[in-house]
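dumping the sequnces here before i forget
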Amino acid sequence: MTDQQQEDLRRDQVEAGTTTGLAAPTLDVTKDRQNSLWSDAWGQLKRNPLFWIGAFLGLFFALMALFPSVFARGADPRKCSLANSKQLPSAAHWMGYDQQGCDYLANVVYGARTSLAIGILSVLGVLILGVLVGALAGYYGGFADSLLARITDIFFALPLILGALILLRVGPSTGLPILSDRGVGAVAIALSVFGWMTAMRLVRSQVIAVKSSDYVAAARAMGASNFRILTRHILPNAVAPVLVFATITVGVLIAAEATLTYLGVGLQRPAISWGLQISSGQSLLRTAPHLVLFPSIILSLTVMAFIMLGDALRDALDPRQRS
Amino acid sequence: MSTSSGYISSTPSLEPSGTGSPVLEVDDLHVEFRVRSGVVHAVNGISYHVDQGETLAILGESGSGKSVSAQAIMGILDSPPAVITGGGIHFQGRDILTMTEEEQRQIRGPGIAMIFQDALSALNPVYSVGFQIGEMFRAHRGTSKKEAKQKAIELMDRVRIPAAARRVNDYPHQFSGGMRQRVMIAMALALDPRILIADEPTTALDVTVQAQVMDLLKDLQRDTGMGLILITHDLGVVNEVADRVAVMYAGRIVETGTVDEVFTRPAMPYTVGLMNSIPQVEAKGGRLKPIVGQPPNLARIPSGCPFHPRCPRARTGAAAAAGRDCVTDLPLLRVVTPGREAACHYSEEVLGG
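..and the predicted 3d for all of it:
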């Protein structure tokens, strides 16, 4: 019980003239403030080492993406000299040089921006599609639900990488503005279009669960429109699991981007990306293994950071996981 | 949707109801739930009316259809499975059921408002109470955020929430049960509704707080002149606050009249049973007298008078008068004494003792 609730109670009793000697405990054993979902979750997160590792790595890579020149130790990724080709790591150049003689640390560092941009943009796309379709299906139910759920099933049948691969392959011939230039935008669109279905199912089930709560009935009884009920009353109460999913998906989609680029349909040179680096380094695996090793390690760490954050968030938001 | 807020942009013109004509009139309302296992007849032709400034109590046990009829008025029945199969609900002379969805929505809030049994689950956990009360003004009247908050504080004062200005930004879970119900009442009263439906407003509260909430509702009703429909199974509450009472059984109204008359001289055996089941101070040490048997299954309502399997006065076959066989003939609500109606073949005998 909070202090305020006790105060209310005392006031209630005074007003009703029913104050008893027992009603005012001087020592309240349940003094802890009752918290909301989010402050409880934060309390739980703070104690989770997984969260701190994930948050530290995530922040580190975010800073790397924002201020690459700081992390590249002053080197320019495009200032190359063939004389340095395939040099191994040294004290001055921590990650050595690639085949073209470019500073590899600078290249790996500048790759973070591309990867994070694609990860975040495509998750935004996934969320927009998933939340929109899921909310409509869950809220209206009936025929709309059946139709949207079947469409989702059709998309589920297409593997993410295969679908994105085909879309990016035919992209340039379509002449569409973003899709045809094979840049960050095109990859993000391809990944969103074939990756939104899980988000849709999550949102749909959450909306169905929240829809039947009393406060939604109350909002309707007070004259709220469908739009207001859905956006103001249902969705804010349905976001928790979607947030967890989104965090994990950032990592998954960053890896998917690297896969697409490695397969030759994602980003193209002269873009700087971990997928491109792994792809061009693989032919030199015997002579210069560091060209595959460093971007792979950084890529794995980034993906891991987001998955750890998502896991920690899920544990924190799920009351059943709490001891 | 014409406005960005998603609500209507202005308050609909609600004509002040003329004296004499009821603000709300429910006429032969039928509601059934069509579920896989069959059809549940929840409300079977109930009629009642509420005048300005009047309190009508709808009394009945769980599953008697009292809440369903209120939900039908507010348009918050879950359909499917619920279907309104007949009847009308007239608000200020117009039938709500024939209105468009948009017109219905304009009545909810400024015309008819509702408060719920469990205020904690009826308040949105992610918004502060001030925001939720203010939402009524922002959405229905397009009031600015700041002004809406000011009005929310005024309303919280009006429903006697202490230190309203300080507590306006608190969340529902930070309030005690009685205070939460006051927040709910503040929300319902925000737009000065002509009718307030209170669906078991005090059931979730402890007894001392119950009395305060009922007093508050009564005071607010005196100030605003709204009609109050009080849905409850608490005989004590009915006795204290209501002007008239309608007793429901198996989706039908089985007795209506002023509270004094119905409580002192019930004209229907079910009501007699209810009154007898009240613990009496004088009967200390004696056994309580329950109504024997179970409430009827609304998917299979007994033939004739739905109360006959539990009725001590039920007559059938040779014992019954012609056309008044409790097992085969359904008794209709009829005037037994002026201003009193009851649905029993033998009301006169019940009245006579």
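Chain B has two domains: 24-249, 266-279+302-353.
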